[in-house]
Amino acid sequence: xxxxxxxxxxxxxxxxxxxxxxxxxxxxxxxxxxxxxxxxxxxxxxxxxxxxxxxxxxxxxxxxxxxxxxxxxxxxxxxxxxxxxxxxxxxxxxxxxxxxxxxxxxxxxxxxxxxxxxxxxxxxxxxxxxxxxxxxxxxxxxxxxxxxxx
Length: 150
Fold this sequence. Notes:
The chain has 150 residues and is an alpha+beta fold. It has one domain (24-149): Sandwich (Immunoglobulin-like), CATH 2.60.40.10. The protein has three helices and nine strands. Strands 1, 2, 3, 6 and 7 form a five-stranded mixed sheet that branches. The protein has a four-stranded antiparallel sheet with strand order 5-4-8-9, sandwiched between helices. The longest helix has 20 residues, at 2-21. The protein is globular and about 40 Å long.
């Protein structure tokens, strides 16, 4: 049992070293992307909470071709007098909603105005990122970022 734990610890350390050595963030791995694409698509429609904060997608431009690396820019819009609570921001990837918040925020700038990540590496294929943030009144705003990297 101890040997398995040591191997796991070494793998985690090597993974962290690999990420730290990379100048551009690998936002999701190819394996995560393939697993998400292969999963059945379940769509739940919910009525947005009145006056919940909104997340506007500034970049990437979803009307054009998205290439990797790509810029990710989000704008938070809260209903006054409430303000976005930055500690509640979450980015969940794909059908399995893998929490990639820490990966994103390790390289991104998070402010009350939004999120800016200059260069995120993504494998070619379809991607869906579920975004959410809560405001100081406790309302939760969500947005789905769907795009295909060519």
